[in-house]
Backbone:
């Protein structure tokens, strides 16, 4: 059996991205949409479209029953979840498979394990990934917390097992504050996730965020596609990502990438995954694994020439990985700017009608976006409206081209983060690649005064 019609359980640029890969493989697509998205580009482009509910995501893009019904109605034989929404919902993956629909994603058990940060860290350690020093698992009592913290040394970080994306974390500077901050972390975790399980790690003060792209075939074979540096973030939202990282040597890349690929091979991982590390003073420390395609995947595509969505679809269809590790080369440099409909100074969302639109173009310039002139950006969803991905033979030339492409982009009628990116690309530290996860927020704070 092979996949002939994919339901895309997502919206916006990633729905378009998946549609494009599918059509290039001769596969039909089914778009699903809320009533707010009836005029969206992903609906126009798809071969079939099904309305799955009212604007709030909880009633549409997160409504499992409606999405399964849409798949049955449209006779889709596979579902691609994209990123966000239901992409890391293990129960959804199980329900899809129980309906004899191909799930274009990892095995549900692996999604579940990596969604629990304590279980993820335990698994990562067993698979040989380097960990941040800390508790062996969940920390149940203040006495245990004191013991662990004294052993690894302050400052420590209390993290929620159900957290991720930075929610439910507390930095503890010394033992005096451990008890109160740990109980605060537990209360916040209970309220946010319905689970007050926490664990403790050594707090790394000034690391970079470096993540490795991996693929497994689910039968014990796995490869890595190198790393992305995503250190430029604001409130756990990535702003600009690049590949390769400005700080890794080819030797570091192949050594860490090899460790990641071996780990995925040993767990029998299937599909695309991203292994996130903090990097400080030349050392890697595993923090989390994402069991989905990521927003920033195009920078990896640019330097490897591999279509990651095509690879995902092939694997879900039972095919072998399209290339061996030795066939994969890393050439040149790529940077992605996330363009949001928001005020570039206050970051307030700026939904509304796009009066004029013109995408940048030219050699090595890619714009992934569902925008068009006359489109109304609805207020209900994420504010990211476009991704500008630029490639260059070297990092310097990539940055020159990126500046040129940002000048060309026209998005009128709403505020966008384009001016923010233009300012960023004037900063010495960004130009030299000398930044950590702290850099952007520090700079924004200085920019205000
Ligand atoms: C950390 C850390 C420092 N030390 N863990 C934030 C989100 C979640 N994925 C893990 N995070 C962090 N974990 C230790 N032991 C600092 C962060 C962190 C961070 C990580 C990646 C990118 C941006 C960040 C911004 C603030 C904090």
Residues:
């Amino acid at each position: 059996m092979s996949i002939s019609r994919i339901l895309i359980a997502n919206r916006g640029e990633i729905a378009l991205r998946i549609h494009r890969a599918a059509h290039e493989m001769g596969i039909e697509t089914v778009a699903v949409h809320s009533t707010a998205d009836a005029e969206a580009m992903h609906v126009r482009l798809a071969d079939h479209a099904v309305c799955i509910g009212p604007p709030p995501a909880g009633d549409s893009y997160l409504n499992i029953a409606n999405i399964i019904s849409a798949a049955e109605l449209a006779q889709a034989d596979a579902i691609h979840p994209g990123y966000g929404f239901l992409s890391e919902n293990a129960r959804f993956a199980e329900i899809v498979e129980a309906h004899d629909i191909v799930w274009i994603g990892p095995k549900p058990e692996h999604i579940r394990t990596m969604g629990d940060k304590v279980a993820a860290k335990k698994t990562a350690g067993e698979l040989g990934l380097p960990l941040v020093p800390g508790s062996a698992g969940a920390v149940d009592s203040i006495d245990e917390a004191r013991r662990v913290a004294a052993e690894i040394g302050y400052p420590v970080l209390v993290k929620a097992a159900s957290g991720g994306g930075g929610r439910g974390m507390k930095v503890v500077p010394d033992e005096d504050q451990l008890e109160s901050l740990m109980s605060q972390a537990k209360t916040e975790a209970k309220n946010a996730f319905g689970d007050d399980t926490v664990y403790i790690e050594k707090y790394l003060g000034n690391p970079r965020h470096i993540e490795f792209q991996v693929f497994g075939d689910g039968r014990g074979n796995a490869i890595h596609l190198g790393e992305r540096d995503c250190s430029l973030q604001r409130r756990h939202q990535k702003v600009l990502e690049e590949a390769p990282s400005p700080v890794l040597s080819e030797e570091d890349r192949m050594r860490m990438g090899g460790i990641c690929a071996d780990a995925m091979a040993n767990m029998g991982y299937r599909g695309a995954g991203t292994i996130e590390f903090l990097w400080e003073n030349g050392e890697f420390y595993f923090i989390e694994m994402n069991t989905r395609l990521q927003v920033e995947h195009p920078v990896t595509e640019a330097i490897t020439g591999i279509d990651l969505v095509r690879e995902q679809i092939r694997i879900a269809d039972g095919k072998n990985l399209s290339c061996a590790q030795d066939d994969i080369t890393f050439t040149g440099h790529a940077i992605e700017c996330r363009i949001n409909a928001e005020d570039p100074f206050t970051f307030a969302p700026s939904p509304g009608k796009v009066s004029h639109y013109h995408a940048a173009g030219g050699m090595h310039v890619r714009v992934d976006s569902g925008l068009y002139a006359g489109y109304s950006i609805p207020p209900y969803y994420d504010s990211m409206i476009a991704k500008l991905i630029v490639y260059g033979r070297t990092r310097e030339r990539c940055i020159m081209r990126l500046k040129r492409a940002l000048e060309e982009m026209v998005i009128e009628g709403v505020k966008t983060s384009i001016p923010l990116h233009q300012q960023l690309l004037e900063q010495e530290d960004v130009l030299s690649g000398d930044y950590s996860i702290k850099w952007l927020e520090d700079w924004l704070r200085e920019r205000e005064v």
Q: What stands out?
A: The chain has a mean pLDDT of 97.
